[in-house]
Write a structure and sequence with these properties.
28% strand, alpha+beta, single chain, 11 strands
Length: 295
């Protein structure tokens, strides 16, 4: 195998709770993660020249050690003393720095792809153990599907599959620093925690309405006052028939869950018309078939 092409899927958080801050600065979280069918295309090729080369369709992305996909390739190249060179091409569709784990998913794809190309023989758990050294979301991006994430996000438990639905993704043209958001959260008391157990129960019952009703993200209390456009997009989605709408991760991306694809298309049009953002996509839940699925 001289090359491999992979889909690096985006994720949303159906629920995001922060339980506390560790002495090392990391936060203990409890999150329900879900992969969606919005993806970057990742191509990995063997090259005669040694070393790692990375290219992207986005000119502003770093192409060296500042890129987490490059770091993933470097990690395996050094550990397994791979003598051949590789070229990584990222065709990006997932909005960047948006709370959708695009970078982490790219790194996960590189770990998975290189494991296959060079026949390294690593199991999924072994890939995930390496992924957490790159970023807290990378192990989840290797696992994908409907998952409970605890610890700093690296303790993963498979949940019952999310019921099928249409997902509307809207990323407003603002930048959010995850570090700044968590620092602001540390400075305030968390009064209301999302109902993570309610989401898990809804998943067990295959109840899309219960999952939607229990959705929550404690980081909204910090990010929305900084960027009120997030709340405007949420309200547009709910007014147009979304079962619920919420910010993903530390933001600024908002997602809405719809039973009707036509309703999602209509609110996509409205959001563009009102110039809330041009980055707005209609997509769907991505399910992973597993033997241990509760369903």
């Amino acid at each position: 195998m001289n090359q491999i092409e992979l889909k690096a899927l985006a994720k949303i958080n159906l629920g995001l709770d922060v339980l506390g801050r560790r002495e090392n600065g990391y936060h203990d979280v409890r999150m329900v993660m879900q992969s969606i069918y919005l993806y970057d295309e990742v191509k990995i090729e063997k090259t005669e020249a040694p070393g790692i080369a990375l290219a992207s369709n986005l000119s502003f992305l770093p192409t060296g050690e500042g890129n987490i996909a490059y770091k993933a390739a470097q990690l395996l190249t050094e550990e397994f003393e791979i003598g051949e060179g590789i070229k990584i091409t990222l065709n990006k569709h997932i909005p960047v720095a948006a709370g959708l784990a695009g970078g982490s998913s790219n790194a996960a794809a590189v770990l998975f792809g290189m494991n296959r190309m060079f026949r390294l023989g690593l199991t999924q758990d072994e890939l995930m153990a390496r992924g957490v050294r790159l970023g807290a979301d990378v192990p989840y991006c290797i696992m994908r599907g409907t998952v409970l994430a605890e610890g700093i996000g690296e303790e993963l438990s498979v949940l019952s599959a999310m019921p099928k639905c249409t997902v509307l993704i809207a990323k407003p043209p603002v930048s959010v620093s995850t570090k700044v958001v968590y620092e602001a959260l540390d400075a305030k008391e968390i009064v209301e925690h999302p109902d993570i157990d309610g989401i898990i129960e809804g998943l067990k019952k295959h109840s899309l309405k219960q999952v939607a009703a229990c959705m929550g993200n404690v980081l909204e209390d910090v990010t929305i006052p900084m960027h009120p456009v997030i709340d405007r997009i949420k309200q547009e989605m709910i007014d147009a028939g979304a079962l619920n709408a919420m910010m993903s991760g530390s933001g600024p991306t908002v997602f809405g869950l719809f039973e009707s694809r036509a309703a999602a298309r209509e609110v996509q049009r409205r959001i563009r018309e009102k110039s809330l953002t041009r980055q707005v996509y209609v997509t769907s839940i991505h399910s992973v078939r597993r033997n241990q699925d509760a369903d």
